[in-house]
Amino acid sequence: AQKVTQAQTEISVVEKEDVTLDCVYETRDTTYYLFWYKQPPSGELVFLIRRNSFDEQNEISGRYSWNFQKSTSSFNFTITASQVVDSAVYFCALSEGDSGNTPLVFGKGTRLSVIA
Amino acid sequence: NAGVTQTPKFQVLKTGQSMTLQCAQDMNHEYMSWYRQDPGMGLRLIHYSVGAGITDQGEVPNGYNVSRSTTEDFPLRLLSAAPSQTSVYFCASSYDGNEQFFGPGTRLTVL
After folding, report:
1. Mean pLDDT, chain A, as a whole number?
2. How far is B47 from chain A (nearest CA, A)?
């Protein structure tokens, strides 16, 4: 059965600190997709990244970076030089199969608070 | 494109009432789904559809019905609302799995 675990329920950092959000997943499929979504206080879900199981290259997008390690079944998300606008709930999600077009299984989310 | 739209944004029901949450997308996406979000629980899948005329159950389907008569619309029906169905409901759609587009959500309270 597929499962996503985000062990950190809440994290609080001071602005400009780096912060890493952990995501550990379980799946029996060899082909799957991993996602990160951001949910700001306004409530909408904002797509951040999609990564397939065959692509273990780390990804960097501005202050955001993702570290995918199949050996530890982890897909961690790092925000460098955090800002107050990064305050949100962040969800990691898993989709099994070779299209990524299947139901998402979400972790319970990590609430990040960035203090000025 | 309007993307994924959901109506209403807010709804209060009494126990036992029925209602339909509307979801529509104008991106010609085949895949649509409904999730509910409860505090500390993340998002859990209720029902999903891979195309018109095809629906399937997710993790928490009890108390909800869906149908998919067109590609654009995927309504979620609550047959007899219960307080346990108080939640925020999100509809999502996707074409090739690159990104699941989420609607703005419907906040439902059942008294």
Report:
1. 93
2. 9
Nearest to B37 by CA among B92, B98, B74, B99: B92
User: What is the distance, to the nearest Å, from the Cα of residue B60 to the centroid of all Cα atoms in its chain?
Assistant: 12
The per-residue pLDDT for range A25-36, each reduced to its tens digit, is 999 999 999 999
CB-CB neighbors (< 8 A) of B91 in chain A: none
Q: Is the pLDDT of residue B32 over 90?
A: yes
Q: Can you tell me the distance from the alpha carbon of B76 to that of B68, in angstroms, rounded to the nearest whole number? A: 10
Smallest CA–CA distance, residue A107 to chain B, in Å, is 6
